[in-house]
């Protein structure tokens, strides 16, 4: 056999493999294969069962969180994740302005592993509740698996959070994507729904504040309806 034929053959196989890898990398960095979020309705959110994190937990319907004053709610992907801690700190930076508006800030987690929630609290300046059935991550739960680690946007988010001084661990489930909601009082509805499309895809803080300013406390809403 002609040695040059073997060399050309091997080169062709190698070039084909490199081309396939480049194409896979390119596709992984588009939104083509990302699962599309299904928007939640107010009725869906209202009936979610949440638990307090006390020694004797109380179970209640999620609508209690926003019924009177509305609320900003973070559905945390994983409390030990340094990207989630970064977003929690960002949302907490809005706390003084939210307090002025009378709008509470809350978070929900999908599990309580070791001291993960306790370790998360220094980054988040609001109450935290347990969503055992992971309803805030639905109606259709979306996951990002190992494809996330070849996305350039994710690596950019990693560097951003690391350079900001955030650190974390690998405890707990971290593939089910989270989000942020701004919900009006009573039946005012969902004013903002941000669904994380990849690890570290943070909500726009200006959009959160803008949505929070639209919240009408229930007493004011009832008064306007009576007029």
UniProtKB/TrEMBL annotation:
CDD domains the record matches: PRX_like2
Record's signal peptide: none
InterPro entries: PXL2A/B/C, Thioredoxin-like_sf
Name under which the protein is recorded: Peroxiredoxin-like 2A
Record SUPFAM superfamilies: Thioredoxin-like
Record key words, sorted: Antioxidant, Cytoplasm, Membrane, Redox-active center, Transmembrane, Transmembrane helix
Cell compartment(s), UniProt: Cytoplasm
Family per similarity comment: Belongs to the peroxiredoxin-like PRXL2 family. PRXL2A subfamily.
Residue ranges of the TM segments: 6-28
